[in-house]
Amino acid sequence: MDPRKVLVVDDEADMRIFVSTVVETCGFIPVCAEDGTQALQLARSEPPALVILDVMMPGIDDGIRTYRQFKTDEMLNSIPIIMLSAVAQKTFFHTIRMLTPRKGHPLAGPDAYMEKPPDANELISLINRLLF
Question: Which position among 19, 46, 105, 131 has the lowest Cβ density within 10 Å, counted as fewest Cβ atoms?
Fold first, then answer.
């Protein structure tokens, strides 16, 4: 794992640019992905210190599916994740509960959740709290 890399996952180019700029402001190296498939490939090839993941991306529940894959993958499940979305936090948590199998372990919630549009100072605080 590279302690300087932060994976930014969002299908909207302007949001990737904004979040990447905030990540650089914190002294980290942003690595960008446009969708969940690309994010998982990048994370498996060189795990980042942190993932900032959009909930609503192309494909059915792509952000939620990607989140589940991160949290159930032994190599990736310890990486902190900030969920970033226009979806209200309570809606996201309800969806995670509904998608969790009845038997077995429930899916843990993200390390942080931030609704769009993100406030740069709040995002910086979250990054610093999770990585320092």
Answer: 105
